[in-house]
Amino acid sequence: MIRAVLCSLVLFCILAPPAAAQYRVLHGTVASGGGVASGSHAVYCTAAQPVTGIAYGADNGVKAGFWYCAGISSTVDVAVTSIFAELRGDAVHLTWSISSNGSCEGFNVYRSPGADAPFERINEVPIPPAGSATYRDETAEPGNVYRYRIGATSGGSEWYSMEVSVTLPPKPLMLHQNYPNPFNPSTNISYYLPKRSHVRLVIFDVRGALVRTLADGVQGVGAHTSLWNGTNDTGCPVASGVYYYRIEADKQVITKKLVIIR
User: Is 185 found in the same domain as 155?
Assistant: First the structure.
């Protein structure tokens, strides 16, 4: 009898189909062979793949071996089956998917600014499952490496996806062409700071005389925009013609030309 049972288990091991999805295995479902070591949270067990040392939540560990799914009547609440991250413009675009027979109440996006830094949630409110499973992280800073994972919530608990890593290339100080140009009565001047710096943004005429100071102070890393309404520092409108705008930041200077038409 014992031999027959062992043969059945061996046959199950051989014939078990591979699975790439991560299934939720409740605490206590696995009672032997390692399984869920301790804790009361649910954990993810990767079926039919020899994954070792996965640990999510408090004191929850899973050893290798698809047989941890044996005895479960169905693969309930399938976790995030895939997650993909790519750089689009100045933001990291995340997409993910879940199995059709899974269910959850919402998603959270977690980010870690490095290999050893803790994960922190970056979305303000949970992302509803009925919507598109995407998120655009516009707070990611160039020159950094980030790790991301998705949390699926259900019944007051949360289960995490696998992690993905994104490396953002560094960006230099940038001063964009004003828009609109030519303009009347106002125009936008945009620029990018690669790090926190003291910024001085000024307008001057073709003779080199200072016309208007738009910014003069410390600003944080990222994109910024200043509006010039075509007036000088005393508030008087300037005449039509060619003017120049210049940014000074972190010992760098960039100058561009603009035109105002009255």
Answer: no
**pLDDT single digits (tens) 58-90:** 444 343 333 333 333 333 344 678 899 999 987
Domain of residue 59, residue span: 19-69
Contacts of the segment 190-194: beta carbons below 8 A, 24+ positions apart: 190/223, 190/224, 190/225, 190/226, 191/223, 191/224, 191/225, 191/247, 192/222, 192/223, 192/224, 193/219, 193/220, 193/221, 193/222, 193/224, 193/249, 193/250, 194/142, 194/143, 194/170, 194/221, 194/250
Nearest residue to 50 via CA among 68, 63, 37: 63
What whole-number distance in Å separates Cα of residue 58 and Cα of residue 79?
A: 18
Residue 1 lies in a domain: no
